[in-house]
Amino acid sequence: MTTEAEDLFKERSLWEIYKECVRCLPPSRFNIISTGSIWLLLLCDCIYFPEHYPSRVALIRSLAELGLGYGTTILGFLIAGFTIFTTLSKPELFRHMREVTHDESGWSYLKVNLFAFMEVFIIYVFFLVICLFIKLACGPGGVASTIFSLSEAHPIEGYYLSRNSFANIAFNLFGTLAFYCLLALKSFVFNNYQAVLTSIEWSFNQPSETRRRFRPFPDRKSKHRNSLK
After folding, report:
1. pTM of the entire predicted model
2. What's the CA gap between 57 and 138, in Å, rounded?
3. How far apart are the C-alpha atoms of 147 and 132, rounded to whole Å?
4. What is the mean pLDDT of the chain?
5. Which of 16, 82, 178, 188 supports an S-S bond with 11, CB 3.0-4.6 Å?
6. Is residue 117 part of a domain?
7. Dihedral sign, Cα of residue 200, residue 203, residue 205, residue 211
8. Is residue 37 helix, strand or coil?
9. For residues 148 and 73, which has the higher predicted lDDT (pLDDT)?
10. Alpha helices in the chain (DSSP H)
11. Into how many domains does the chain fold?
């Protein structure tokens, strides 16, 4: 197995892939600022109106139910589209992308492309796991609800788990995660657009000319960071 192939198959799990994505892929400034703004907005809502936690609990359960339905459907379409794209793309393009190194991450452009898509898949899988946990454990009669009821009824040395605080924290984190998933979907659309442009540019130019004048993504000085957002 060549060095390029060994590097391509180095990650053995989704967790390893996601760690590499976080560590090496350039972050999206728009996604970070937008997600941080939503987190701050929800935090202020919870701080200034903590007494609204019952409605927030109902909203979390409703959002988890919607997330399971829509999230599963969206993930299925994303994977199907990605599979069709990689199947129909020219092998010569992938071969050339494997030979060109991405400056910021040190990977080949082929791996950067694949990881850009895989990051979105992993985010949606994590979101679906959280939604399923909320449905199973945080619904009426669920494990989490039972634990909080027992803790409030029988506090240990004056300390108990506050349903109020937990509901507000969960609302803040889960709402932020749901918004970030929408931004990840936006990023996937842009990634797919860039990938299509790459394939078109490759088809319209001879391989030698393409190697000389065209890179799969804008470089680090471009205002568009690369395939991501």
Report:
1. 0.78
2. 9
3. 18
4. 77
5. 16
6. yes
7. positive
8. helix
9. 73
10. 3-8, 14-24, 29-48, 53-88, 91-99, 109-137, 143-153, 163-204, 207-213
11. 1
Going by C-alpha positions, the residue among 141, 159, 143 that lies closest to residue 151 is 159
Residue 144 maps to a domain: no
**Would residue 24 count as lying in a domain?**
no
Contacts of 23 (CB under 8 A, 6+ apart): none
Task: For residues 78 and 65, give the distance between their C-alpha atoms in angstroms, rounded to a whole number.
Answer: 20
Q: Which class for 169: exposed (0-12), middle (13-18), buried (19 or more C-beta within 10 A)? A: middle
One-letter amino acid at 165 equals: S
Dihedral sign for Cα 25, 26, 31, 33, please. positive
Report percent pLDDT > 70 for the chain. Answer: 75
Which string of DSSP letters, residue by residue, matches 75-100? HHHHHHHHHHHHHHS-HHHHHHHHHS
